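agent> fetching stored inputs for the zinc ion docking request
agent> found them:
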Amino acid sequence: MIVDSHMHLGDFPDFNVSLDEKGLDDLMSSCGLDKGIVFHPDNSLVQQAIADRPHVFGLVWANPRVPDYVRVVESFLDDDNFRGIKLHPLLDGYHPNDPLIHPLADLVAERNLPLLIHTGHPIFTLPWSVEELARDKPKTKVIMGHMGHGNIIYINAAIDAAERRSNVYLETSGMPMHTKIREAVERVGAERVLYGSDAPFHHPEVEMLKVKLCGLNQRDLNMVMGGSAVKVFMVDG
Ligand SMILES: [Zn+2]
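agent> prediction call returned; pasting tokens
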């Protein structure tokens, strides 16, 4: 079972990439992805894409600057095809532990669903800031997207935070060092490490190769490639 925990639908002209519904289907079948987790700031676009795709689930993009954001997010979460919330504090401009985020953290905790938060860039998405939210909301599963991303200081900080906090999970997309994936598994356990690609910004097979080459035993490899995501997002069956 391979689950891609991090995929973006939509057009991204700055990056000169895009992923539409057909592109998603093609990518998933060509890369052997059994299930995928997708999101976009326009939650309606995602809701439409996942409605008739039983193997694809959504995360509700939450932005506390949107009026009435808690009610809006809750209404999308009531659609069972959504399995958590995505936060991008850098893009939307807020601190991840701003009190405005706390009702969202409670909302997912009540449903045993996770928050996936972008990490890796100053000023709002460094692992220490995301850890503050995990510390204040210990019942909320907090996934650090990109597990710190491209800088070794931030990658180490993400693994350190996960080691300190049992509600912190690490997602592998866009993080360049395969050896740090193995270290993460050794330090926090495979159940809290999730494979993700960040498609269409990165190719799922390239991202997969890092996990496959990092030296995990078969059991841990199966967990990271999909078993952990099945549990965290509750996407079995
Ligand atoms: Zn992403």
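agent> quick read of the result: The chain has one domain: 3-233.
agent> awaiting further instructions
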